[in-house]
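Hi V.,

You were right to ask for the full record rather than a summary. Here it is.
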Amino acid sequence: MANILDIFRTHSGHRLLERTAEQTGISENEVNRAFLLALPTLLGIHLEQCASGKSHFQEARKEFQGFIDFIETEDLCHQGEKVMNLLLTANQQDKISSFSKVIGISQSAYEKVLKISCGAIFSILTEITENKSLKREDHCELVHSLAGISTKFDREFIMTLIKNEDSPHLIDSAEKIALDREDDEDEQSILGGYTGGR
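Predicted structure:
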């Protein structure tokens, strides 16, 4: 079963770390810690909005083409901020930004990671939605797949992550094998114990 943190097992994920470090001014290790907190938190908010029928995905999807395209956007923070302002109220943004203290990085840097995380999630949702011609009612199931709750769109998610960085249409077979293997019966995530999946 895949989940959003499997991004960082791929070349695309490593590139996201590099670009985010460039734009936040903090180390890749610090960026990684920030993503490990930000991405699941934001997916939790997506899930809550799906459950309440308040998802803003349709409003924001026109801003994105795909995950790899997003990573190479000149200003990741600006692109992600458009989504964050739809997804989170000002009060929610303030509260989540304060989480930076827990992981020992500056609040200003963590706010930038939050914006980039919003953009990364929406770019993945957009790419899969466009490729599969998904309907509005499929959106919540797709979010469940990114959260590791459902396996319905696991394959589509994996294929979004493992495109070779030199050619967006060439699958890196080594990563496909690593990510698309059969899981052990008791394994809830491709990352296993690292994400608490065992």
